[in-house]
Amino acid sequence: MSDVATLLFGREDIRRRIEELGRTITGDYAGREPVLVSVLRGGVMFLADLFREIRLPVSVDFMSISRYGDAQESFGRVRILQDLDRDVGDRDVLIVEDIVDTGLTLAYLISVLRARRPASVEVCTLLDKSARRIAPLELRYVGFDCPDRFVVGYGLDFRERYRNLPDILAVEDPAALADAPDALLPHLLA
Ligand code: IMP
Ligand code: MG
Asked: Among the atoms of ligand 1, which is closest to the Cα of residue 76?
């Protein structure tokens, strides 16, 4: 382990938690056919694993959005880069997110989706960094509470790097990582 980052959630913890989430979602949505909406790109890893633990006829769709600069400065203004392929009117929508931080991105996304008159909109996030929440949100399903730290791995990136780490690491020293962006590459071999 380097000093730059420490292990926060290991792959086995993640796998077990996703199994539990899948069971809960399967029970809650019994008799329905939810559509899982994944936000590119960080959410796809979680989606792929969660999806296979939901024993219902589910469909998936994708959306790509970008914030205007930093969350605080953009104050939730988000641009849709790629919209869903299908209409979600009268559907049970479950948004699958990697992490909810300020919540501004998700609050915007929920408002966009609600305007399309779905039967329901709920959120399943792997990580909840609630200490930094600005937009009040109800998160129906949460994998883990996340400390107020920058995290990478399992879909989460540092400048597009490290999404493919199987574990989730907390970056101890973001400045050091900015200076040496390859510092965590050894973790890819661990
Ligand atoms: P929010 O609008 O502040 O909730 O932004 C959430 C988005 O910011 C997530 O979907 C991630 O793409 C990104 N993000 C927030 N915290 C982290 C982190 O610790 N590591 C990597 N990406 C993060
Ligand atoms: Mg995201």
From this structure: 2
